[in-house]
């Protein structure tokens, strides 16, 4: 089956579970007044023209969390909504090296934290994530790394 063609204006997104050697994951938090408060989310964002999903993931992780990763594993690709051709690409990143965040002005209040995976999963079950990609990525990453 051939995938349908997609308009060039469609901008996919990538979301990353950056898992450190100690099992903690990079989680960001910020205020979203339009949605009523502070929420947590994973590093990620929209693809720039010409980027592959993994290139987008690498850039977003470096910018939002100040992290580079040696290993990358795809966790799948999913429709963002039924009414859009845009897709969200989920990744598990390991072999991390931490550096300074490279936040844009609209991201200036992003707070980086390192949480144990169970705490991040709990935040997802408590509805503390605003976007759906983070909880799905966490669950898939947990499954992928289970012994």
Which features would summarize this protein structure in a list?
147 residues; alpha+beta; 4-stranded mixed β-sheet; 3-stranded antiparallel β-sheet; 3 helices; 7 strands; 37% strand; globular
Explain what you see.
With 147 residues, the chain is of the alpha+beta class. It contains three helices and seven strands, in the order ββββαβββαα. It has helices at 53-65, 117-125, 133-145; strands spanning 13-18, 24-32, 37-41, 44-46, 67-79, 87-98, 111-116. It has a four-stranded mixed sheet with strand order 4-1-6-5, with helices on both faces. A three-stranded antiparallel sheet has the order 3-2-7. The radius of gyration is 15 Å and the shape is globular.
Brief write-up:
The chain is of the alpha+beta class. Helices cover 24% and strands 37% of the residues.
Task: Tell me the layout of helices and strands.
Blueprint: E1 13-18, E2 24-32, E3 37-41, E4 44-46, H1 53-65, E5 67-79, E6 87-98, E7 111-116, H2 117-125, H3 133-145
Parallel strand pairs: 1-6
Antiparallel strand pairs: 1-4, 2-3, 2-7, 5-6
Helix pairs in contact: 2-3
């Amino acid at each position: 089956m051939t995938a349908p063609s997609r308009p060039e204006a469609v901008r996919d997104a990538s979301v990353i579970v950056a898992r450190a050697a100690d099992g903690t994951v990079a989680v960001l938090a910020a205020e979203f007044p339009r949605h009523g408060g502070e929420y947590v989310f994973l590093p990620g964002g929209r693809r720039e023209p010409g980027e592959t999903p993994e290139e987008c993931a690498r850039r977003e992780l470096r910018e939002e969390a100040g992290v580079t990763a040696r290993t990358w594993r795809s966790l799948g690709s999913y429709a963002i909504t039924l009414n859009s051709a845009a897709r969200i690409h989920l990744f598990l990143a390991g072999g991390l090296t931490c550096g300074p965040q490279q936040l844009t002005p609209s991201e200036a209040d992003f707070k980086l934290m390192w949480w144990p995976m169970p705490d991040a999963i709990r935040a997802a079950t408590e509805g503390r994530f605003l976007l759906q990609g983070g909880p799905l990525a966490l669950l898939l990453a947990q499954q992928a790394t289970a012994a």
